[in-house]
Every structure is written in structure tokens, then in C-alpha cells.
Amino acid sequence: MTHELHKPKPVELDQAKNDDDLKYVPVWQGLGDRETPPKGSVQYQEVLEALGKDADEELAEDFDYTDYLASTGQIVFSEDDPRAQKYADNENYQAAANSQVAEAFKGNAEREKEREAEQIRIEKDKDLKYVPVWQGEGDVTRIIPTKGSNEYQEILEELGKNPDEELSEDFDYTDYLASTGQIVFSEDDPRAQKYADNENYQAAANSRVAEAFKGNAEREKEREAEQLRIEKDKDLKYVPVWQGLGDRETPPKGSVQYQEVLEALGKDADEELAEDFDYTDYLASTGQIVFSEDDPRAQKYADNENYQAAANSRVAEAFKGNAEREKEREAEQLRIEKDKDLKYVPVWISPTEEREAPPKNSTQYIEILAELGIEELEEDFDYTDYLASTGQIVFADYDPRAEKYAENENYQAAANSRVADAFHVKAEKERGKYIDPNGGIIKAIYIETPPKDIPIEGTDEYKLLLWEIGVDPDSGVIPEDFDYKEHIAKTRRPKDYPDWLDPVEDIDDRWVDPLKLNTSKTFEKEFEEYQFFRRSDGSFEIKTEEGFDDITGIPKLQFADKAVSAIAEIEATFNQVTAKEDHTGQMFRLYNAAFNRFPDSDGLEYWIEKNGSGENTERQVAESFLASNEFKGKYGENISNEQYVKTLYQNILDRESDTEGYNYWVGQLNNGVEDRSELLLGFAESAENKSLFTEMTGFE
What we know:
Elements: H1 13-20, E1 27-28, H2 42-50, H3 65-71, E2 75-76, H4 91-97, H5 100-103, H6 108-125, E3 133-134, H7 150-158, H8 173-179, E4 183-184, H9 199-205, H10 208-211, H11 216-233, E5 241-242, H12 256-264, H13 279-285, E6 289-290, H14 305-311, H15 314-317, H16 322-339, E7 347-348, H17 363-372, H18 383-389, E8 393-394, H19 409-415, H20 418-434, H21 460-468, H22 484-491, E9 520-522, E10 531-534, E11 540-544, E12 547-550, E13 556-558, E14 563-564, H23 566-574, H24 583-595, H25 601-612, H26 618-627, H27 629-635, H28 641-653, H29 659-670, H30 676-684, H31 687-697
Parallel strand pairs: 1-2, 3-4, 5-6, 7-8, 9-13
Antiparallel strand pairs: 10-11, 11-12, 13-14
Helix pairs in contact: 23-25, 24-25, 24-26, 24-28, 24-30, 26-30, 28-29, 28-30
């Protein structure tokens, strides 16, 4: 479960010791070889020293630097790399290849193959004579270049005509551009069919550049519809405003507004409005105000052209929902007035928490005596009950203790107060800490890292286990029929299972919805190729080629490369994110941006703790990601600033870079204004990526 790059898994002592004995921390070596460092450099001198040569000696011209790094355990090849076989008997190499660090290198070969395939596409695109652009609906913007211009002469040359010839009057310039691969139509554009057998067009349409054109047709249709509304709104005499509850009062006689009403009604400037003049009706009938759709007054103007034009305008769209907000404000005001009657401001306590009575003779102790009209508290005085019955504390709705006070006025007033609203949100976020999916109270655990075998009697862990199962640790013993493995699986959350428990195969029934016991779903691709989403109703989905598939509470999701538990991995990861703008949301975005994949639960938890505790700043976390082997495997070790920026656009924003943005960011790097970690943070926290984050997590 723990991501090997960021939070090493627990290992046996001997293995940990072996890794400590490594002279170097190995890195993964992809295809290609390493070049010998420049003579005189620190790295060059280190090689001389390692080989037992004097500082003024030189390496042979045919010195194999890659072989030197591998034989000393500084680099590791993929298992299927033929070069790995050369070092099958080399102790340094084998120690490095079998180290914890090297575990992170697995799969890098596959990613490199993917990069090679992408590079083939890039190379193939270089054969394109033109860089195609997208052609929207119609060809009104495609005007034949002016006769004599460079573009005009290029067309003549392309068509094999003499420079002094002319294009025919009916020359189809759009057709010429399409047939030569200079423009691409949307897939659903009928014109695209005309070029189904045209090699130039098909090469352009299947290029990497053309991928960015998908969806442009839909956006153009939306823009056209919007433009029609904008043009229609220009005919409105007034810009309407929303009218909430209540009516508008007629302006004072003699005011500018009063005179405008007289003029609109065709009256003389010295005339007067009738005493019963309905100013609200006048504004609505002339299209100056709009009511909410569920406002009964709106029906009165169903056939009024002025009103309907205003109500259907773009401006009026912003008015939808205002009625609901006004109702909420009114209800809120009522609650504010009601809360003023509360004697105490209540606080929330968790399901496993009990309050201890204050020390005797303390101010709080004396206040309780005065409240109860007694001289001394009994030894078994229930302080938690006292606080709840007087409305000083509130339990979560799912806390069994809340039922006890269903008829208690003090408690109910506190539980239904505005202050308590914040507790409901907090309680739901905390729910998973205290309640399992089947409604059972989660008891406290005492062994943080349970051993694989049941602890030996007399050890500290044995006593802690007795605490967990409710047996007196000083005199009790663990029953002979006690199922230790079952106990650990039942009391620990699947995401916190020790390494010797598999959250897919060993998950205890208490963590699974009874309706989903023993269920599983299979997906064709590898885990990292899928996107996951948390919906506002608390459900979880995976995006597939067919659409979205619900995976909420599924114990087993089988992918091409591995099986994971939606409960222990997908849900556990999302549940760590508490808000869009706090450090949990930032770490989720940074993790997802750096590695272009869904964060693993333990890895995200590790970095949230590092950042939340103040031990690592956002920039330090970004630098750690940049230095990781997974990052280097995805982005490359020695890529240029230009390629780095392009990859950020592709991996984080899932699109090609725009020219302006690309030039700006490359300039920032080349000029030293920002470094790569700052750029990674910038992309991760960009408005565009935050929008993707909102879509994925539901947090606004």
C-alpha cells in the first residue's frame, strides 16, 4: 500500500541493514549510455579515486562509464534490459538491484516504451509538410490570398502552375487547404468524409497537433448560440434586475424616476400618478424587473412580451436561485434570533470521548454545584451527561448517545442551533474515524504496528493486545481460540493493514457494505491509466472508455497489472482531502501533477503529514518529487527546459501547450526567474488544474 518512493515500507531488520550498507543510492538507467564526466570535474575525480588512480591521471579514451556505474552499484537497469544480465554475478550491482530504492524502478521500462511510441508519433509528425489548423463551420474566413502575394505564389507552385498564371475564379481554397493537409475539420463535420482517402488530409487529421482540435466544433456551436442571445439581448430597452419578496414603492413625486414613469406612460410632466398606482407592476410589464420562476407573480406576465424578453435574457440567468437564497436568509435570521436564547455556546465531542469532571473547588466545579443546587458531586457523577443535558455539548447524529437526549429541551436547542451546524459538517468528516460502514463503533487500538505472529506472553505488545480485546492486561490471558489475524483485520482500517495482510484478499466483512461482500470489477488497462472521481453524494467512480462506472465500496478492482481495494486505496485517498485550498488539497494536486497518476493512499498521507506539520514546505515537497526516480522515469533525467514545460502541459493539464504560455514558462526557466520545482507548483496550483481537481474531488 505504501508508495515506495515516498514512504518506505517496513522491512525485516536484515533487509534494512543491507540497504544501509549500500555505498551509493542507485538510480534507474533507461535506454542509452552515460557519458564520462568532463575531465577535471568533481565526478571525474571521484571516478579516478574509486579506481585507485592518482588525481592527475586520466581515464582511457574507451573508458565505459556506464559499465563503471553499474559495476559499482550506482545505476540499475530494467529487469528486461539485456545489459542487466552482464552483472548477474556482480555483488555491488545485485545489492543495488535488490534494494528497497530499486523497487521503485519497476515499470520504468514500460513507461520508456510508451515514451518511445510517443516519440515515433512526434517523428512521424515531422514528415508533415504543414502544421494543420482546425477549420470551423463554414469557410467564410478562408479567402484566397491576394494575387501576387507569397501565399498566392506558393499555391501556384503547389499546383504546378507557372508564376504568371492565375487561379480560376471558382478556385475552392478550402478544398485546396484540406487536400494538402493544412486544415482539419471536426470528426462530425460532413466535409471530413470527402477526404477519407486523401493521404495528406489523413496524416494531418491523425497527427498529435490535431488531437487538440477535438471538441472545437462543440465549443463553436456554443459560442454561436451565445452570440445569438447576445444579439437578441441588445433589443432590450432595459437591463432587468431581480425582484425578491415584497413590492417596489413608487418614487417620490418630482424625482427623476417619477418623471421617467410619467414620460413612459405618455403623461405630461405636471401630471400625477394615481394614488393606487402599482409601481411593481409597471416595472415588470416594461421588463425592468424579473421575478423568480416559482414566484406566483411571474405567472401574471406569461403573455407580456417585455417581461418575457427580460426573463429569458442572459442577464436574467443570474437571477435563478435567488428566491431560494432569500428563503434561506429568512430562515437563518429566525435561527439567529432563536440562538440568542441559548444559555451556553455548545461544542462538539467525538463518539469515543468522555468528559471528566473539573477538579474539586475549581471555578467550573463550583458553577456545577450552583447549577445543581448541591454541596458536593458524587464519585460516579456523569459529567458528560451533565454537559449534554444542559446544552453545553452536542454529539454527532450517528453517536448512540444522542438518542438519550431526544426529549431534552436544552440539548435539542443546542443541537439545532446555528453554531451546531458547523459540528454536523465536522462530524461527517470525522465519521470514518469512529464508525465502520455497517454502523459499528470503532474501538481504540493500541498496537500501532502489529507483528505477523501473535505477541509472546509477558511482552509489552501482549499487554497492548489484551487492552484491545477488553481483557485485564495485569491478570488476563489471550483465549486459546483467539483468531489473531481476524482481530487485526477487523480492528484496523484496510488502508492501515500491516504488510502481512492483503487489503484485497484479507479485508474483514465489517469494512464492507453487506450488499457488496465478495464483489469485484475487472478493467482491461493498468491501474495508472484510469482516472477516479469522488461525487457530491459520497460515491466514487472510475472513468472508462464506456463512461463512468461506480466503484463505491467494491472490495476488489482487478486491473491488468494489479488488484486494489476501492475501500483501502481509492476511497482512503480521497477521504484524506478535506478542502480545495488547505494543505490536503494542495498535496493531492502536487502529487497528481508530479506523477501524472492517482496518488496512493499511504504516499499521500505521508506527504500531507510532512507538509501539514510544517516539516516540509510545498516547495520542499516539490523538490523531493523532482528528485524521485518515478519523476525522472516519467519526465526524463536530462530533458531540456523546453521539453520539461511541454511535459508539464501534457501530464498536468492534459493538453498541448499554447504558444504564449509555453514561451512564458520556458523564459522563466531559461532566465533563472523560477526553477523547475516552482514551475511544478505553479502548474499544480493553476486555476486550470484546480478546475480539474474540483471535477475529480467535488471540492469547490
